[in-house]
Design a protein that fits this description.
A: 408 residues, mainly alpha, MetI-like fold, three-stranded antiparallel β-sheet, two-stranded antiparallel sheet, 12 helices, 7 strands, 5% strand, B: 473 residues, 2 strands, 1% strand
Chain lengths: 408, 473
């Protein structure tokens, strides 16, 4: 009778912690945890000791103290009597404003440049290649300084718009005397909100919702009952017509105020500071060059067979583009595009070069130098950017999971 | 038949007539223009618009550039020369001929310019075998010791510092290799780390400090261990290598005149920061990428946190952290060189980005490669080194080079923490009496230098991609 027994029971030896792959991962992790804790404890002990030596603790109380400095561009009411916290909020909003507008302009520039770079027109594709390579290979900071210098040095002073004795002005305004680039900023018409404009805004928002409802309805009809309901023209109609009719019925509640040349300077209209313009244009052109490459790669990634197959199925060119090529190209384009948006947002901290009052200038600049709270200030600024980038990457992950190829 | 005809019939040709040239519209420049510039209405309009744009830009810049003055001592001098020649405006390239040493070397002592130049020439020798695999592999040894040579040439000081660093690192390398040959890679790494700590750090007092700290946590009156540390004779021995180099320096004081970090500026500074960060961020980035892929929970989470936090915050904030905040986290009284701090920060920053690029490469490899490596019986590090990483790195080359280009461009941000990189010198030169009010010339020069460097890098990455492509297309 054979004696059946299990494998011999080994006694545990200490060397197994290193050589046995069953225990090794545990050993590594324990060692890593120990080292990490030691490092953190060491840094924390140093921090506490340093703060003690300087005779101060960690406190965010300065956010509720009087700021005492002015900010050149504010989206919310702010005076030098406001608190540091409000100044920080102003800076945040300025950062978000330039980042948001920059993302829009960069996308427009990037898509145009990317498509044109693939054009079979030799000179256009070369021109776009020069643009893309020129912006990709030179630091953004240099472009910002250059554009800022162009805006402040190469544009005329307001008085140069005044006609001389012969009635000829050295410079003239653009777009029917509504816009002007001057050394003191860019002048644009400002909207004037009169009573009744609130109603108009409500109508416009309602028509946007209506457009979405119509689109849903049309798609439902198409997918469930196979009826083709037009989308483009009804949506445009819903968007424009009610607002237009309301605009005239309410007696034109919103009007534009044009900048007018006064005695020394322009008056009326709105002035966009050169700092904002330089930062906005610089960020958009720089990021646009990167987006152009992404768009080009995305279009090239859709193989020609896809287009040919769509033609073979009898789809017209426009349908081929919107139903076959674009959905596949967008799958390749969107994730790096969003990470470029993230880059643009982070690069907006280069506002320091053109003295635009963003969060780095208020929280990371004046607030730190006047209160001496560099630890707290930099920490808050880091948290702000971290939150922003988690938000953006959250959006990206959501999109990725939605458009992921459903593999079986 | 034909032969008879050729003799009998007079009006039949004897030989074939040569083909006619194609119509003018179907050949040469005309055809090329029709196909490439005017193939449709839209294209024709685009062509005209682009020609207008090109003409507009050139007509505004070219006369200004060509009228430029190449030798003058100040901006007013330059404008006078321009007025004499009858130009209303023109470039003052003289500022570059006058001040280029500062833009390139910063405040580096001018009689010592041979040192950075020699370092740069040697750099070409050190980089060449890395870039071009056709060169003899023995040259890689020179690449390996080049960082120490460059450090010695640029900063000067006692020759024993780099020598002892070299000795220390070779001891680390030899010890690690011996141990890993004897008892496995993991053990080898441990031994290497141990030797490293022993060579360059002060493990004894660190240990005693931690013990003191822990003791202080548990007892109300903290145990004072410092007298105990002071009484140990061993204390003076650590850190081992710096002590040795000091000793050798006092016995045989050989060395170059030392140059402080403050004197290093301009493109020299950009290159020092950029290249060191490139060199150091690559291995760190690979380790982080592997850590992010790892199954080990803690390692994974630590790497993910590191990468995401670093990537989520702009470099400029990190640089401010390096210049103002780092002192809070170091033992009181510690100061170390600002350039070194910046290099460490930029290295971490670049490593996080490279880790993400390499992670993409690792994820793109088919699972069969990992399983194949396992089935051959390779352990983790062998399979990574021999099978996974070569393929993953090859896929990630464009991304890695893009990161390097971005890193090199980002070195200009150090101007905001008071280091004098090329842009810092632009500001300085514009603040002088002679060149107050000059703009474009300096920006154009610095921009062009950056462009050339970055453009070369991107072209090299395309060459590498073509060379490493193994699929048959």
């Amino acid at each position: 009778m054979a004696d059946v027994s299990g494998p011999p029971k080994e006694s545990f030896r200490l060397s197994q912690l290193i050589y046995d792959s069953r225990y090794r991962s545990l050993t590594i992790q324990v060692v890593a945890t120990f080292l990490l804790t030691a490092a953190i404890v060491w840094l924390g002990m140093n921090l506490v000791e340093n703060l003690n030596r300087l005779g101060r603790g960690f406190d965010l109380g300065f956010l509720w103290q009087r700021a005492g400095y002015d900010i050149s561009q504010t989206l919310i009411p702010y005076t030098s009597e406001s608190t540091h916290g409000r100044a920080v909020l102003v800076g945040m909003l300025n950062t978000l404003l330039v980042a948001f507008l920059g993302c829009i302009l960069a996308t427009i520039i990037g898509v145009i440049a990317g498509v044109l770079r693939l054009s079979n027109n030799w000179i256009v594709s070369r021109l776009m290649a020069v643009y893309v390579e020129g912006f990709r290979n030179v630091p953004l900071l240099l472009w910002l300084l250059l554009i800022f210098a162009v805006l402040t040095e190469a544009t005329p002073e307001p008085r140069e718009f005044r006609p001389d004795e012969n009635g000829v002005a050295a410079y003239s305004m653009f777009l029917g005397d509504s816009m002007a680039f001057t050394a003191r900023g860019t002048l644009i018409p400002a909207p004037v909100w009169e009573p009744g404009s609130g109603v108009l805004v409500v109508i416009f928002i309602a028509s946007i919702i209506g457009a979405f409802v119509w689109r849903r309805h049309a798609l439902r009809q198409l997918y469930q009952f196979g009826r083709v309901v037009p989308i483009l023209w009804p949506v445009l109609g819903i968007l424009i017509l009610p607002t237009l009719i309301g605009f005239f019925l309410l007696g034109r509640p919103i009007s534009l105020e044009y900048p007018v040349l006064g005695r020394f300077n322009f008056s009326g209209g709105a002035t966009i500071s050169n700092a904002f313009m330089a930062l906005w244009l610089g960020l958009s052109l720089y990021t646009g060059a990167f987006i152009a490459e992404i768009v080009r790669a995305g279009i090239l990634a859709v193989s020609k067979g896809q287009t040919e197959a769509a033609y073979a199925l009898g789809l017209r060119p426009r349908r081929t583009l919107s139903l076959v090529v674009l959905p596949q190209a967008l799958r390749v384009i969107i994730p790096p595009l969003i990470s470029q948006f993230l880059n643009l947002t982070k690069n907006s901290s280069l506002a320091i070069a053109v003295t635009y009052p963003d969060i780095r200038a208020t929280l990371g600049g004046t607030a730190i130098t006047t209160t001496g709270k560099e630890l707290e200030g930099l920490l808050l600024m880091g948290l702000f950017f971290l939150a922003l980038s988690f938000l953006i990457s959250g959006v990206m992950n959501f999109y990725n999971s939605r458009v992921k190829l459903k593999e079986r | 038949m034909s032969e008879t005809h050729s003799f009998t019939v007079g009006y039949v040709r004897h030989e074939m007539q040569g083909p006619l040239p194609p119509p003018v519209a179907e050949s040469g420049a005309v055809k090329w223009m029709r196909e490439n510039l005017f193939s449709s209405w839209l294209n024709a309009i685009l062509t005209v618009v682009s020609l207008f744009v090109i003409w507009w830009v050139l007509s505004h810049t070219l006369p200004w550039m060509l009228a430029g003055v190449w030798s003058a001592s100040s901006l007013t001098d330059c404008r006078n020369i321009l007025a004499e020649r009858g130009y209303s405006s023109g470039a003052c390239w003289a500022v570059i001929t006058e001040r280029w040493p500062q833009l390139i070397f910063g405040f580096y002592p001018s009689e010592l310019y041979w040192r950075p130049i020699l370092a740069f020439v040697l750099l070409i020798g050190a980089v060449a075998p890395v870039l071009y695999t056709s060169l003899p592999r023995k040259m890689l040894w020179f690449s390996l010791i080049y960082p120490l040579i460059a450090y010695y040439l640029l900063w000067g000081g006692s020759v024993w510092t780099p020598v002892m660093l070299a000795v220390g690192f070779s001891l680390v390398g030899m010890g690690g290799t011996l141990a890993s040959n004897k008892s496995g890679f993991f053990f080898g790494v441990l031994i290497a780390i141990l030797i490293f700590l022993l060579m360059f750090f002060d493990p004894l007092s660190a240990l005693l400090n931690v013990m003191g700290g822990i003791a202080g946590l548990f007892s109300a009156d903290s145990v004072r261990l410092s007298p105990m540390i002071g009484s140990l004779a061993l204390r003076d021995l650590f850190p081992l290598m710096p002590t040795l180099s000091d000793l050798l320096g006092s016995i045989a004081p050989i060395g170059l005149e030392s140059v402080t970090s403050r004197e290093i500026g301009g493109f020299l500074l950009a290159l020092v920061i950029g290249l060191s960060a490139i060199v150091f961020s690559m291995p760190l980035g690979i380790l982080l990428a592997l850590g992010r892929q790892s199954d080990l929970f803690i390692i994974n989470k630590v790497c993910v946190t590191f990468i995401e936090v670093i990537r989520g915050i702009p470099l400029i904030v990190w640089l401010f952290t390096a210049s103002t905040l780092l002192n809070y986290f170091l033992p009181p009284g510690t100061t170390f060189d600002l350039i070194l701090r910046v290099i460490i920060m930029v290295t971490f920053f670049a490593a996080a980005y490279i880790a993400e690029v390499i992670r993409g490469g690792l994820a793109a490899l088919p699972k069969g490669q990992y399983e194949g490596a396992d089935s051959l019986g390779l352990d983790y590090w062998q399979s990574m080194r021999l099978i996974i990483l070569p393929q993953a790195l090859k896929i990630s080359i464009p991304g890695i080079v893009n990161t390097f280009i971005g890193l090199f461009k980002d070195t200009v941000l150090v101007v905001f923490i008071g280091l004098l990189d090329p842009i810092g010198f632009i500001n300085l030169i514009r603040a002088t009496v002679e060149w107050n009010g000059i703009y474009w010339e300096l920006y154009i020069f610095v921009g062009l230098c950056f462009f050339l460097f970055c453009f070369f890098m991107s072209r090299y990455s395309q060459y590498l991609e073509r060379k490493l492509r193994t699929d048959h297309r």
